[in-house]
Amino acid sequence: MTCLQENSNTKSDSEQLVKLNPKSTSTKAQYSRILEMLRGGSKSTFDFRRAGVMNPSMRINELNKKGEVRIDRVALENLYDSEGFMHPRIALYALIEDAKETNHEG
Description:
This protein has helices at about 25-40, 45-50, 55-65, 100-105, and strands at about 45, 70-80, 85-100. By secondary structure, it is α+β, with helices and mostly antiparallel strands. The chain has a single domain, classed as Arc Repressor Mutant, subunit A, CATH 1.10.10. It has a three-stranded antiparallel beta sheet with strand order 1-3-2.
């Protein structure tokens, strides 16, 4: 079992993808999963929930307020859940700005 590793450096949360228990529901673990997922492309609310982030809009709002990344809701879609129920207006999110990517360009 991997433990949360606290890093006392001044790196931002988006720069520190620390090793976490893959089943952790800590806020830091959820931030890490959201960022990792969005670096691979746009994701829906359902995608985040399957990854253990039950309230992705709140976690995304918190990440945006930190100012290290910019994540936008880019669409609302009608999607079916795993049980076959259609849900209207499910949010699709995209990573627009990423401090990690910006720091590596210079």
